[in-house]
Amino acid sequence: MILILGSTGMFGSRVLRETRARGAEVRALVHSEAHAAAVAASGADVAVGDLDQPQTLTAAFAGVDTVFVVTPMDDRVLERETNALNAAKRAGVRRIVKLWGAVRHQPGEELDGQHRASIQALRDSGLRWSLVSPNSVMETSLLQQAGGIEQASMIFGCAGDGRVGLVAADDVGRAASVVLTDRDEQGANYELTGPEALTMTQMAEALTAGLGRTITYQDMPETAFRQMMVHDVGIPESAVDTAVMVHFAAWKRGDADLVTDTYRELTGQAPTSLAQWVAANRAAFEAPAG
User: Fold this and answer.
1) What is the rounded CA–CA span in Å between residue 241 and residue 60?
2) Which residues contact 129 (CB under 8 A, 6 or more apart)?
3) C-alpha angle with apex 29: 24 to 35, nearest 5 degrees?
4) For 82-102, what is each residue's pLDDT tens digit?
5) pTM exceeds 0.90
6) Class of domain 140-163+195-258+270-283
7) Which of 153, 194, 163, 221 is nearest to 276 (CA)?
8) Tally of CA atoms within 13 A in the half-sphere of 121 that contains its CB
9) Where is the NmrA-like domain (predicted)?
10) How far is Cα 263 from Cα 254, in angstroms, rounded to an integer?
11) How far is Cα 239 from Cα 232, in angstroms, rounded to an integer?
12) What are the domain boundaries of the chain?
């Protein structure tokens, strides 16, 4: 039995879908009964539990061999992942596969520090473990730009000429499902990227080609871009640094300029290019008809 945490989120939902498609016995952890009904309708086994309340996790982890761990990207990563690890050890779980990231962060950044502490806890746990580490994801990097594309035919950022090997979330789900079902290398870190590292100017060019109208990139001072993310995009003030700004800073430093063959090695397929992703998601960048 494979338990998928975060099973209604961007990564967990895709990992759940792809792992079930591979014929594995899968259980989805959901936060509420309302979410349980929606996930159960897909045919998945469902358990209700809350990583903030470890006493609710016992039934979800019972009889599980492997757990896929992904938690919200906030200041409680370590607490929640520690609760998951402790529940796994109590239940006799054999293996943990944790979502991390391929973007290099600076020492002292809080979120990175929490992830590193969680990984150290895995090393010390006595369990088998591995990491699935996507580079920055096309969905989170570009869908938040949909308003600017629709209204001004522009994307905005503060990354300068930094390059990033953007990866599609569907590719992350597919690769993670292979790791969960077919790979068991102790301590392995599967870094996932798209097929090319692009600047934001090149991302705008890909959007131009895919949407059939000119899209340009506006590089902004960090302070102005941060204000835009809060006031125009609606990212909470308390979350914008962790959710957005540290990633753009890493892009600018060149710390996301990474392209690997890991996705092809795991799946036997080429990773999704930005051009392919734009074609598949074109409707998200176009104003509704009428």
Assistant:
1) 33
2) 95, 96, 97, 98, 122, 123, 186, 187
3) 115
4) 999 999 999 999 999 999 998
5) yes
6) alpha beta
7) 194
8) 21
9) 2-238
10) 21
11) 14
12) 2-134+167-192, 140-163+195-258+270-283
